[in-house]
TrEMBL record:
Residues 32-165 form the DCD domain. InterPro entries: Dev_and_cell_death_domain (IPR013989), NRP-like (IPR044832). This is DCD domain-containing protein. Residues 181-203 are annotated as: Disordered. It comes from the Eukaryota. It comes from Platanthera zijinensis. Transmembrane segments: none annotated. Pfam families: Dev_Cell_Death. One of its GO terms (biological process) is response to endoplasmic reticulum stress.
Amino acid sequence: MGAGRKTETINADSTLPASEHGCISARNLPKNDLAGAIFGCKHSTMEECLVKQLFGLPSSHISYVRNIKPGLPIFLFNYSDRKLHGLYEAASHGKMHLDAYAWSDGGAERTAFPAQVRIRMSQQCKPLAEKEFKKVIEDNYHTPQHFWFELDHSQTRSLIAMFKPLAGTIVPAVYPPSQSNSFPALPAPKRKLKKDAPATSSVSKNKFAALFSEDIEAGDG
């Protein structure tokens, strides 16, 4: 908010393809079937996404963004080079206007991407090219270039397994547990990692894998 900001009506998303709007923007998975979600960015907006730890989509996506709860696996698709980035997880419930002026030229206007979620990195991994991840979410493609961002359990599990950690990275420190989060908290990492030691994503992937355990009951947010 604040004095001096411009106000205008946003009629269309200025960075996502027009085919992502309206009735085809959602796969409409039932809440308990939503096991992961993809958000979009471009080279020009990716840095702000990561610095603010905030991902957003046009308002037409709120039908499923509102079903995101802390701990849900999240991925970031860069339209500029068509690569999928991970591994992230939701650090908040999905809501409208967590930051009403994000990705809007320094906060001069209201955001075109108000369906938002706060995120945190679970493991820094090498991004996946579209030819790699497309086979996993092939059923989500509604045009040759555009796909639904909602992921079911099988798709989420397969995508997580495809990501490989970048050399020399470690799992971040313990996250505060959430009452609505069915994932266990990450254990504290070792303080030092030898330069020649291979990175491992086993802790992170085991954490995400808890979502698919038969011992965990799916619950409402």
